[in-house]
UniProtKB/TrEMBL annotation:
Function (record text): E2 component of the 2-oxoglutarate dehydrogenase (OGDH) complex which catalyzes the second step in the conversion of 2-oxoglutarate to succinyl-CoA and CO(2).
Pathway annotation from the record: Amino-acid degradation; L-lysine degradation via saccharopine pathway; glutaryl-CoA from L-lysine: step 6/6
Record carries keyword Ubl conjugation: no
InterPro entries membership: 2-oxoacid_dehydrogenase, 2-oxoacid_DH_actylTfrase, Biotin_lipoyl, CAT-like_dom_sf, E3-bd_dom_sf, PSBD, Single_hybrid_motif, SucB
Residue intervals of the Peripheral subunit-binding (PSBD) domain: 205-242
Name the record gives this protein: Dihydrolipoyllysine-residue succinyltransferase component of 2-oxoglutarate dehydrogenase complex
Segments of this protein annotated with the region Disordered: 246-268
Domain Lipoyl-binding: 2-77, 104-179
Lineage of the species this protein comes from: Bacteria, Pseudomonadati, Pseudomonadota, Alphaproteobacteria, Rhodobacterales
Cofactor requirement: (R)-lipoate
Family statement drawn from the similarity comment of this UniProt entry: Belongs to the 2-oxoacid dehydrogenase family.
The entry's keywords: Acyltransferase, Lipoyl, Transferase, Tricarboxylic acid cycle
Coiled-coil ranges (or none): none
């Protein structure tokens, strides 16, 4: 018994469509309502489900063909006797089931996190032919925010590496193959291994109308984000890319390198920027280009905080199991000041100002791979001990490169402590979309005039960078003064003054 697959109703006044993509090929088993192909009209994209379970016997309308309403697209055989595959049929999608033929298992890119669509293969810990245990680390991927380790999905032998070090891979792309039989496949030739899997994964053609539109617009597929199945580029995607290119400001040409002599060039070393460093550079420059950034300064006498810390640090560590540092004092002081000056804890969203009735404190931390900003959530509701424990835990994750996407999202205000590196004065850069960041600096003994006498006091310069679009000078100065007052007399924090 054979069931016909026909073009469905395409909508009012629409009489024909183009077969954009076949997701199955003749001989494939299909389930009822499983998507067989995708049609593209001048208005919408239509997916065609299987009307019955069985085997796709033949394809009548190939990719690129124009078909009318109710036209025959294919036949499904309920008996399982499929016709021989037509030579023009589309190949099977690249993202096949992880379990491959011959007892082998595909190694796939894991979930990278919200809004992250690609990563770079930074290092392979194993080479082709190596025996691996299940869950043993195979390679490490680097996104623009975090590093992701990829464990082996099964025990066996690493038979193939399909994404070489330095390759850019998309979410759910194939990285390699684990052979359960122990027989490793021959390593791929070096040029093939070095090819970007992102390009290889697009082994099914984009919609014909999209290809035509890209040619007319002078765009390459690399400049268009596909929204079709498996990332296929549709006609609407090209239109959006053209509109975005037209709206984008002309890029500022990069300053050319100064001339370098042959002798100097021989002593230089060129290293590709990591994705993290590229993202840091882009975000910092975007911050300067977007926000009306201004910095106001003050200085704080750290004597009272240092005396309080010295008096209670041993008891604090014994009871809470964590050292009492300066960061908890600054976090508490900032949370206190943000209540009085809420615009420093707000952000701009279009023409709206979003005020945050909570404080998620970002704590900037330098790591061997670059600057990261883990977030302490609801810091305004935490005790000194809870803040110190949270900062210690996030700091360890940052140093070990184990921070997750969730650890760095949702911050409303940021602390940056350049003093640990010896900085005496600096202007911190905003962490968008936040409107404020407090820069802490080195504590240094300086002569100060107090009650008509010159005395030596441990002083620290404070710098508040703020977005002048939302924070006025009065608010910024008031915030910094409140932080200064709270640190010079920590009892004010207890009295909520």
């Amino acid at each position: 018994m054979t069931t016909e697959v026909r073009v469905p109703t395409l909508g009012e006044s629409v009489t024909e469509a183009t077969v954009a993509t076949w997701f199955k090929k003749p001989g494939d088993t299909v389930a009822q309502d499983e998507m067989l192909c995708e049609l593209e009209t001048d208005k919408v994209t239509v997916e065609v489900p299987a009307p019955a379970a069985g085997v796709l016997a033949d394809i009548v309308a190939n990719e690129g063909d124009t078909v009318g309403v109710d036209a025959l697209l294919a036949n499904i055989s309920a008996s399982g006797d499929a016709a021989a595959p037509a030579p023009a049929a589309a190949p099977a999608p690249a993202a096949a089931a992880p379990e491959a033929a011959g007892g082998s298992t595909d190694v796939m890119v894991p979930t990278l996190g919200e809004s992250v669509t690609e990563a770079t293969v930074s290092v392979w810990f194993k080479k082709v032919g190596d025996t691996v245990a299940q869950d043993e680390m195979l390679c490490e991927l680097e996104t623009d925010k975090v590093s992701v380790e990829v464990p082996s999905p099964a025990a066996g032998v690493l038979a193939e590496i399909t994404a070489a070090e330095g390759s850019t891979v998309e979410a759910n792309a194939k990285l390699g193959v684990i052979s359960g039989s122990g027989a490793a496949a021959a390593p791929a030739a070096a040029p093939a291994a070095a090819a970007a899997p992102a390009a290889a994964s697009k082994d099914i053609a984009n919609a014909p109308s999209a290809e035509k539109a890209m040619t007319e617009a002078g765009l390459s597929a690399a400049n268009v984000a596909g929204t079709g199945r498996d990332g296929r580029i549709m006609k609407d995607d090209v239109a959006r890319a053209v509109a975005a290119a037209a709206a984008a400001p002309a890029p500022t040409p990069a300053a050319p390198r100064a001339p370098v002599t042959a002798n100097d060039a021989a002593r230089e070393e060129r290293v590709k920027m990591t994705r993290l460093r590229q993202t840091i550079a882009k975000r910092l420059k975007d911050s300067q280009n977007t926000a009306a950034m201004l910095t106001t300064y003050n200085e704080v006498d750290m004597g009272e905080v240092m005396a309080l810390r010295s008096q209670y640090k041993d008891q604090f560590e014994k009871k809470h199991g964590v050292r009492l540092g300066f960061m908890s004092f600054f976090t508490k002081a900032c949370c206190h000041a943000l209540k009085e000056v809420p615009e420093v804890n707000a952000e701009i969203d279009g023409t709206d100002i979003v005020y945050k009735n909570y404080v998620n404190m970002g704590v900037a931390a330098g790591t061997p791979t670059g600057l990261v900003v883990p977030v302490i959530r609801d810091a305004d509701a935490m005790s000194f001990a809870e803040i110190e424990k949270a900062i210690s835990a996030k700091g360890k994750l940052a140093r070990d490169g184990k921070l997750s996407m969730a650890d760095m999202q949702g911050g409303t205000f940021t602390l940056s402590n350049g003093g640990v590196y010896g900085s005496l004065m600096s202007s911190p850069i905003l962490n968008p979309p936040q409107s404020g960041i407090l820069g802490m600096h080195k504590i240094q003994d300086r002569p100060m005039a107090i009650n008509g006498e010159v005395v030596i006091r441990p002083m620290m310069y404070l710098a508040l960078s703020y977005d002048h679009r939302i924070v006025d000078g009065k608010g910024a100065v008031t915030f910094l003064v409140r932080v200064k007052e709270a640190l010079e007399d920590p009892r004010r924090l207890l009295m909520d003054l």
